[in-house]
Amino acid sequence: MSGEYLPHISVLLEECLNALSIGAEGVEVPLFADLTFGGGGHSSEILRRNPHARLIAFDRDPEAIANGRALLELNGWSDRAKLVHANFDQLYPWFQANTPGLFNGVLADLGVSSHQFDAGDRGFSFRADAPLDMRMDTSDSSIDTAADLVNTLPKEDLANLIYKYGEERLSRRIAARICEKRIERPYRTTGELEEACFLSYPSHSRHKGIHPATRTFQALRIAVNDELGSLERMLAGLPNLLAEGGTAAIISFHSLEDRIVKHTYKEIVANKNNRVMILTKKPIVPTEREVEVNPRARSAKLRVLRRMENHGGLNGFTEREEESKLERE
Ligand SMILES: C[S@@+](CC[C@H](N)C(=O)[O-])C[C@H]1O[C@@H](n2cnc3c(N)ncnc32)[C@H](O)[C@@H]1O
After folding, report:
1. How many alpha carbons lie under 13 Å from residue 96 in its C-beta half-sphere?
2. Which overall architecture, per CATH, does domain 144-224 show?
3. Does the pLDDT of residue 43 top 90, yes or no?
């Protein structure tokens, strides 16, 4: 583990807790799933605010899990919270094998944690020179690192990856430069890749707007961790896991993720057997104040889905009433 686990400010915390109905009215021992434990900010608040709540938390990062175990122990929560070191696309198989009961709330706060980004040795950020790794699950040696992708993908595939996952206009130039240079010396560090991106930009735009390496790093991170595929596979199993009146709250941080959440929610609702409703026609976004305090929250979007009660509506409320409750709270 790379030293201490660095702090993470939880995004849209109150909005998530409202959406998940932490009090889970009428449920004596509600069960929640936090699919992205990270620094445990959301999980801790669930456990703190509802002393009866039970929690299953997933994270694929061994450092998050080790830190999480210590956190649960320290707070005396180990008997009602369980940490699972796995990709959340394993939620459904895990659920079938462990049969914990249906969830009253499921939360996913996608992307990387501040710890992963700031730790300096994980390779997610070009602000520190580090091995070009970017795996969230550092214990899985079968996953190609960012260096593996950069050094082995054919030029065309690399350009497409940078364009698709990074929405980088100069993807072809960047891929061409990478492929030209890797013949002399394979890429090993974030600094080497950052330089390739920087020099691929025309000199007059290198210092304008976001750093020239930002989109390429995002693209590689998404590819290394198969972030979009994991999200799609997790969402596919979700409707079967929610208890009556249970909610799913998902925070995304870029348009590729948000599009998947939005469209999959619609597909889930379209299947009448699922008996679910979308409670956020428009996503919930952070207030200006939250973005001021935590600039990493700026692109966050929260979308909420609820499984209906068997006797008809949503706890006796209409869909519009439920929506406006979330807006007000
Ligand atoms: C944004 S952080 C979560 C922060 C957390 N909500 C908090 O308040 O501290 C995202 C975490 O989710 C984990 N993660 C991302 N994708 C995952 C996946 N597919 N399966 C399991 N964990 C994942 C990352 O390793 C990271 O620790």
Report:
1. 7
2. Orthogonal Bundle (1.10)
3. yes
